[in-house]
Design brief:
By secondary structure, this protein is an alpha/beta fold. The chain is built from 5 helices and 5 strands, in the order E-E-E-H-E-H-E-H-H-H. It has a single domain, classed as Nucleotidyltransferase, domain 5, CATH 3.30.420.140.
């Protein structure tokens, strides 16, 4: 099954892809200036990759409850369902951004430059896409 992973944010939407091989990989984030343009970016990925299912990272609090951000994600999920008519599932995304930032630090292996590097990756959506790739891989592994 071809799955698109989504890490929703108001300015950036991290994206990851997994197929029948069961390996999740980050793909370019939707970082366009408007929400409609970001949704068009997602539409393009769905069409080009022949996506059959969407998995959205769900922002549970550390104690397992959901808060205000989760309500925004719920609304976004309804938008995805209405626009793309695909099944949408959620997966716990707790600590995935922290892990993605750690991975970028380890890859760069430059502690002095890691703050600037992390900021650049965050603005480009690289960290968001890496974070949802982690979540999507955990989702795939649990299925």
């Amino acid at each position: 099954m071809r799955i698109l992973g989504i890490d929703y944010g108001h300015k950036r939407i991290g994206l990851a892809y997994a197929d029948e091989l069961g390996v999740a990989v980050p793909i370019p984030a939707a970082v366009e200036s408007s929400e409609n343009e970001r949704l068009e970016h997602i539409a393009s990925e769905i069409k080009n990759r022949r996506i059959e299912k969407i998995v959205v990272g769900y922002p549970f609090n550390m104690d397992g409850t959901s808060g205000a951000i989760a309500r925004d994600v719920d609304a976004f999920i309804e938008t995805l369902k209405a626009r793309f008519c695909l099944p949408v599932d959620t997966a716990d995304e707790r600590l995935s951004s922290f892990q993605a930032e750690h991975d970028f630090d380890m890859i760069s292996n430059k502690r002095k430059k890691s703050v600037a590097s992390r900021r650049r990756h965050r603005l480009s959506g690289d960290i968001d896409s890496r974070a949802i790739a982690i979540v999507l891989q955990e989702y795939m592994d649990s299925q």
